[in-house]
Amino acid sequence: MTTPLSADERMWQLLMQRSPGDRLGMCTRMFSAAKALALAGIAADTTRAAGLNARQEIFLRFYGSDFTAEKRAAILAALGG
Prior knowledge:
By secondary structure, this protein is an all-alpha fold.
């Protein structure tokens, strides 16, 4: 089910009425919320890979598929304890 275009347009108008600082603040709060949810999921996941720290797990969940296996391994090594 999709939202009617007029509702999308109205939502966009309301968002664009906010200041750039307000919009940035919204983005940072949404990212913080997403990170908190991801950390809760990591803590609850009993099948997670042993030896990875929270920073590495967050990286894999948020950005892991954006990199080649070689680059991903290098980033994980840099994020290691």
